[in-house]
Amino acid sequence: MKREEVFLAWAPKDSIWSPWVLPVPFAQLNCGDFSRAEVEEQTMPVPGWMLGDDRKDTAYVIDISGGETMRCGIALASLGIRPVPVIDGSPGAGEFYFSRDPQASTTPAWHPNVAVDMTELLRVLCEGASALAGITLPAPALPAFLLDARRMSADRLLSDEVYDNRWQVFPQDFPSAKFLLEHGVRKVLLVQERKGQPQEDLAHVLLRWQEGGIAIESVGTSDESSREEIQVTKPSWFRRIWYRALATLKLRRSWSGGFGGFPMSSAG
Fold it and tell me: For a FRET experiment, which of 89, 217, 224, 241 has its CA 20 to 30 Å from that of 263?
């Protein structure tokens, strides 16, 4: 499956939410063919926090580890929710190959050191493209924005040899509260390992939505706790015009778009 086909499986042209599917993780992705049966074996069951949810006016923000987030997105698609990957980090330099044969799936041998390991996330993007090809969603299906909760958590001690692909989300990566309301969204469910306040970068997004009239609820996956409405705590530099510039000072830009680079490389 060509990378363009994989991208279009997650960002179909008829979906109003496709403009927010970031192309960054797809730019270096090469996927073999996964049969739907093989993919379904790996697909997670419908999560407990979804049971009994009428989903008529709810959008979702899934902020758990990358691979699990994507699997969750596929499960939600089976319930009529549009999965929208918002991933702005490059997985590393070079090409990444995945196939139905795990022994044939490789990453660049010359570049094993990355700050945030995105291998599992990329694999599920490949698997998910095959799964989504068999699911028909209406164009106005409400969205589930898929994030990687580990986006700023380096797996390795940062050094000159480590490809620093940490990244953050910004309000510009998401639709406005006005757009959400115009398309039927009245509340957003934030899904994290533990319910409560969002990560600080995400708080800049959710507080804007809350101020725009959208209720924010939170639920935890680790304890299957009941959802509860939260008041998002105001993050540092909220609505300051220089917030994005300051936030990106500690991050590195990737040649393929998004964030990622070596400390001394031209991508930095």
Answer: 241
Would you give the DSSP letter of residue 191? Answer: E
| H or E element that contains 131 | helix 119-133
- Count helices and strands (H / E) in the chain: 7, 8
Give pLDDT tens digits for 182-199: 999 999 999 999 999 999
> Tell me, what amino acid is at 258?
G
Q: What angle do CA 104, 76, 188 make, to 5 degrees?
A: 130
Residue type, 152: M
User: What are residue 87's DSSP bridge partners?
Assistant: none
Specify if 262 maps to a domain. Answer: no
- Answer whether residue 254 is part of any domain: no
Q: Which residue range(s) make up the domain with 90?
A: 3-248
Q: Give the distance from CA 145 to its chain's centroid.
A: 6
Q: Is residue 264 part of a domain?
A: no
Q: Domains in the chain: how many in total?
A: 1
For residue 148, what is the enclosing H or E element?
A: strand 143-148
pLDDT tens sequence across 152-173: 887 667 777 777 888 889 999 9
Mutual angle of helices 66-77 and 119-133, in 10-degree steps: 10
Tokens of 58: 């709810």
